[in-house]
Every structure is written in C-alpha cells, then in structure tokens.
Amino acid sequence: MERIEGIDTVAVTAWLAERIDGLATPLDFELLAGGHSNLTYRVTDQNGAAYVLRRPPLGHVLQSAHDMGREHKIVEALQGSTVPVATTVGMCSDVSVNDAPFYVMNYVAGPVLHDHDAAAALSAENRADLGLHVIEVLGALHSINPDDVGLGDLGRKEAYLQRQMKRWVTQWEATKTHEVPAMDESTRLLAERMPEQIGSAIVHGDYRLGNMITNDGRVSAVLDWELCTLGDPLADVGYLLNSWVSPGEREEDLTPTSAGGFCSRDTLSERYAVSTGRDLSDINYYRAFSHWRLAAINQGVYKRYLVGAMGEGHDVDLDAQKQGVTTLSEAALELLV
Fold first, then answer.
1. Can you tell me the distance from the alpha carbon of 292 to that of 285, in angstroms, rounded to the nearest whole number?
2. Which of the four, 8, 17, 152, 190, has the lowest number of CB atoms within 10 Å?
3. Are 107 and 52 in contact, with CB atoms under 8 Å apart?
4. Range 114-134 average pLDDT
5. At what angle do helices 160-175 and 234-243 cross, to 10 degrees?
6. Which residues on neighbouring strands pair with residue 213, listed in sequence order?
7. CATH class belonging to 116-336
8. Which pLDDT does position 248 carry in this prediction?
9. How far apart are CA 179 and CA 224, in angstroms?
10. Angular region, 240: left φ>0, alpha ψ -120 to 50, beta rest
11. What are the tens digits of pLDDT across the range 265-306?
12. What homologous superfamily is domain 9-106 in, according to CATH?
C-alpha cells in the first residue's frame, strides 16, 4: 500500500475490514480537503465502493478543537431525519490505530459548489430549484428538537449571541494590529441592539453551498459539522444570506451564487419564515453579526501570518488579508446603520 500522510493504511484498513462486510482490499486513500481544518479523505476499495474518512489536522491541536467524536455524534443523530447527511460507518476513538481519532461515512457522489465556475456548470433549472431546497433543509434542521435526537447536550441553548460576542470581542482584542473604525462602531451597535433569542435550535455554523453535495437541484448531503452547536437559528440564516451573492453585487466575486440563476435573498427569507414560523424582521442584525464575526476571525489569521506563526511557504497577500478585515467590518456596519 502506498503511504499517505495522515493515514496508517495498514491499521485503518484492518479497522474498516472489521466493520464493512465484503470490503475488497487493498484500499486507495485520497486526500480531498486539507489545511487547518479537519482532513477529509476518500477511501475506495477494489470493487469501487467509496467511503469518506475525517480526522483532525496533522500536528498538535487543542483538545476541544477538531473534535471527531462530537462531529460523528451530530451526523449520526441526523441519520434518517429530514436533513440529508451521509450515512455513518463508525467512529474510532483509539488513537493507537491512526495517531488521532477519526470517523468514516459512506461516500455521497455529486458536485460541491465551491465557486462561481462550479455553479455555472449547473443547468438553469437546477440553479433555480437548488436555492429553494437549501432553505428548506435549513428550516428542517432548525425544526428538529435537539433533545429528541440525542443532541440536547451539544451546547448551551440560551444566550447564543452574548456568548459569541464575548468570544469574538476577546479574539479581536487579542489579535488587533491596527485601528479599524468600522469594527469598533459595529461592535458597539451589535452589543447595543442585540435582539432577544426566541427559542433555540441546532445551529450548523457554516451553512453555505460550499458545504453541501448537490444533485439535480437538491441537497444530497450537508457536510462539515465541526462548528455545529445549539443556539439562535437566525445566525445560520444571516450567514447563508451573506453568502448568497447576486451577479455583479461585488466586484470580481467568486461565490457560487454570483453565477446567477439562483433565487433571491428575499425568497430565501420568505420561504424560511413560512416553513419555521420565525420572525425575520431583525435578520439584518444577524447578517451584520456574521460579517463582524468573520472580520474578527480574519484578523486572527492576518496576525498569525504577520508574525510568522503559520510557518514558511505560504503565498499570502498580507495587504489583501488586512483589507478583507476592513471590508467585512464595513459591510457589518452598513447593515446596522
């Protein structure tokens, strides 16, 4: 077997063979997505049966970060629900097998719409249908009672925005390298105008087209549950709406929906409100919060590159990274004033 970074092919093959009847070895392992997030591999046997293996990034990670057991628990809990997810094969917590915990799911075929070009390859009919199913699935996720599927202990249900604000204000202050007036003002307004949380739900945390497998204008599987928690479902809606960019809305935008042919933000909002009964009159607050949170995250990344904490060999435009923080904070402020 060919050696692949992050996988002990002999031990992982043995572990899978115990759980999958008729597994035809040797297995082929291919890294699909790497970086600082969890690593994703496609595993294919000699008969063409395919699976997906997820493990933490290589090197040391915080105990609470990249929690495979937590991610597996969420996907397992949603099996058979109205939210499409891959079917799970199993979870390995024994680090002697592969130096880190991992879990395995059945592979779901279909494109992931990471960018403009991937979305442009879809038919006009599929694009028109897909947005409607994307918001239908989000409404379905938010309608699941976490306690009913064993996820009631995933996190605190209340005070989601307060907890997030506290976390990211702390992050911003710890990584601030220069003055960003729009960040200061949007922070003040977000704290001042924070709406009351009405109920709680399972919040995906990164719900966008780039985290879905799609086929024929429908979502076949929602991916990347590592940021999932309990809290205010409108945070997911605001985040999705920000990613739902119209053609020409932003200069040289590469987001999938910039290819055109998708339903509007207004349609998404209306569909969600009807399916869930939730009031979206404050949705611009949640959109502003989403931009603001990303600005704080990007500032942390900018500082790490600036001080060399990310190591050598990264081709990063520091000026563009710095400008991105300002652009996001200004977008947040524009939605608040």
1. 10
2. 152
3. yes
4. 96
5. 50
6. 221
7. alpha beta
8. 87
9. 33
10. alpha
11. 999 999 999 999 999 999 999 999 999 999 999 999 899 888
12. Phosphorylase Kinase; domain 1 (3.30.200.20)
Beta bridge partners of 55: 39
72: tokens are: 């597996």
DSSP conformation class of 194: P
| 3-state DSSP assignment of residue 197 | coil
With beta carbons less than 8 A apart as the criterion, state whether 250 and 258 touch: yes
Q: Whose structure tokens read 């608040």? A: 336
- The token pair at 179 is 């003055």
pLDDT over 70 percentage in the chain: 93
Helical spans, DSSP H, in the chain: 9-17, 68-77, 95-98, 116-120, 124-143, 160-175, 181-192, 234-243, 265-276, 283-306, 318-336
Euclidean distance between CA atoms 166 and 21, whole angstroms: 48
DSSP structural state of residue 203: E
Question: Taking the domains of the chain in order of start, what are their residue ranges?
Answer: 9-106, 116-336
Do 138 and 272 form a contact (C-beta atoms < 8 A)?
A: yes
Mean pLDDT of all residues belonging to the chain: 92
Token representation of residue 284: 């611009």
Residue-wise pLDDT for 172-207, tens only, equals 999 999 999 999 999 999 999 999 999 999 999 999
In angstroms, the CA 97 to CA 101 distance is 8
